């Protein structure tokens, strides 16, 4: 699984998932904190629909952390002020970069969490569609 997809799942799922996966690594391996969680701003890109050109809509506050496990660096960047989540994401990323054996068992857990996220989104979308007004059937 690619880093982007894995990170999206961990951020959108319950924060306990990232916490539990990072806890498994913390129990077995020692990790070195290269950069403690720190706040910063990053530019947010958007694509203009008519000309299909990119532009920056503004800035967003992020929390970034870096750790090292077995000489492999992991990075965790998350929106807002979430120190623990950024550190946990960095630990998980470093574990994948170091190809630790624990990461093999995580694939099914992450896929299950992704399916749960899609199910919740579909349910929310269905609830929204129930409130949609059909103007074609309204008498004017």
Describe the structure.
- By secondary structure, this protein is an alpha+beta fold.
- Helix content is 49%, strand content 29%.
- The protein contains 4 helices and 3 strands.
- The protein has helices at residues 3-12, 15-28, 83-97, 102-130, and strands spanning 32-47, 54-69, 72-79.
- It has a 3-stranded antiparallel β-sheet.
- Strand 2 and strand 3 (72-79) form a beta hairpin.
- Helix 2 (15-28) crosses helix 3.
- The protein is globular.
- The chain starts with a helix and ends in a 10-residue tail after the last helix.
Question: Which helices and strands, and how do they pair?
Answer:
Blueprint (H helix, E strand, L loop, with lengths): L2 H10 L2 H14 L3 E16 L6 E16 L2 E8 L3 H15 L4 H29 L10
Antiparallel strand pairs: 1-2, 2-3
Helix pairs in contact: 1-4, 2-3
Brief descriptors of the model:
140 residues, alpha+beta, 4 helices, globular
Gist?
The chain has 140 residues and is α+β, with helices and mostly antiparallel strands.
> How confident is the prediction overall: mean pLDDT?
91
| Biggest sheet, spatial arrangement of strands | 1-2-3
Biggest pleated sheet: 3 strands, antiparallel
Strand content: 25-35%
Helical proportion, percent range = 40-55%
